[in-house]
Specification:
There is one protein chain. The chain has 12 helices and 10 strands. It is α/β, with parallel strands linked by helices and 339 residues long. Strands 1, 2, 3, 4, 5, 6, 7, 8, 9 and 10 form a 10-stranded mixed beta sheet that branches. Helix 1 links the parallel strand 1 and strand 2. Helix 8 packs antiparallel against helix 9 and helix 10 packs across helix 11. The longest helix has 25 residues. The radius of gyration is 20 Å and the shape is globular. The protein starts with a strand and ends with a helix.
Length: 339
């Protein structure tokens, strides 16, 4: 059994996947690297096969018909043999020095009486447009240098939510929560970091800049124009999150986790609402109304919680309401560097 499985979903990634894979290979025999060729039309599959041939005890390749990022992650979860599991997108990479320190800490907890469920580290936005960086850390929010529980967490500001980039889950946590991401859907990373959280009992945070997130390509899913075009996929993810966890059923010892998850889901409602507003069509605004009506029908308590949160600020009625919502989004975009 490997210490960690890295799953790398790859779609037409030939131009940049080498950099990602080379950083993961520095983990050596502790690692299993699963490269999922998601029906690529370029040389992605050939490159992946070449790595598997060169590193047969580390690299495995899965070739599949195109199923999207979520199905790439699903394949990794199904086939992983590592105790821990991390997704690394093919255009991103890991800092190799930080990786060695994280692996050493994971090794140190393999024989703990209570298994370590979640390892967290910092991530860095690498902005290609202006060659700048934005480090997202959890100093002052999470205890450092020891195992802790949800009771000990602080408050997460909107700019420092738990993202796929920051997490290494124990593989069995992902399986126990029934993780099955939808095919052909962007933004499934939100489900990945949301659904397993109630299963997590023990956490460790290392104040290291591990994950390097490349941002700024025109075809990137977080590009604003693409988010408007793909708003139905954003809605699909939000609806899944609406149903996948009953946050009000969480036990008292997870009260702080409940607060975090409520804020995160409210953010998802806000994002869905704002991009439907940015679309501006009658159809889009009808979808926005329907989303809120569906939430109200599903869980009145959750609806009221979101209604009086930041999400409601993105659901203001009428022409003036839309202008205010969009203005608020533009300000938030600058603060949180959404793209």
């Amino acid at each position: 059994m490997k210490l960690i499985t890295f799953t790398v979903p790859c779609y037409n990634s030939a131009a940049y996947m080498d950099h990602c894979i080379e950083t993961l290979l520095t983990a050596g025999e502790d690692a299993e690297i699963i490269l999922v060729d998601d029906g690529s039309k370029d040389d992605t599959g050939k490159i992946a096969d070449a790595y598997a041939e060169k590193y047969p005890t580390i690299v495995r390749v899965i070739h599949q018909e195109n199923g999207g990022h979520g199905e790439g992650v699903n394949q990794g979860i199904r086939n992983a043999t590592g105790v821990y599991f991390k997704v690394v997108d093919s255009d991103d990479w890991l800092d190799t020095d930080a990786l060695q320190q994280v692996l050493a800490e994971l090794r140190a907890h393999l024989n703990d009486e209570q298994p370590l469920d979640l390892m967290m580290a910092n991530y860095v936005y690498e902005h290609v447009a202006d060659n700048t960086q934005n480090v997202v850390d959890y100093k002052g929010i999470l205890p450092e240098g020891r195992v802790f529980t949800w009771k000990e967490i602080g408050k997460f500001p909107p700019s420092k939510n738990i993202l796929m980039h920051s997490v290494i889950y124990r593989t069995e946590i992902l399986r126990a929560c029934g993780m099955e991401l939808p095919k052909h859907t962007f933004y499934v990373d939100n489900i990945f970091v949301y659904q397993p959280l109630p299963q997590v009992k023990t956490i460790y945070y290392m104040n290291l800049d591990l994950y390097r997130y490349f941002i700024g390509r025109e075809d990137q899913s977080v590009n604003e124009a693409n988010m408007i075009k793909r708003v139905d996929q954003q809605l699909r993810v939000t609806r899944i999150m609406m149903n996948v966890v009953d946050v009000y059923a969480l036990p008292p010892e997870q009260a702080k986790l409940r607060a975090y998850m409520l804020n995160y889901f409210s953010m998802m409602m806000a994002i869905s609402s704002i991009f439907l507003t940015l679309d501006g069509s009658k159809e889009a605004l009808a979808k926005r109304r329907q989303l809120w009506d569906d939430l109200k029908a599903h869980d009145g308590h959750l609806y009221r919680r979101c209604r009086f949160s930041v999400a409601e600020g993105c659901n203001l009625p009428g022409w003036l309401g839309s202008k205010i919502s969009i203005g608020g989004y533009r300000i938030a975009q600058k603060i949180f560097k959404f793209n």
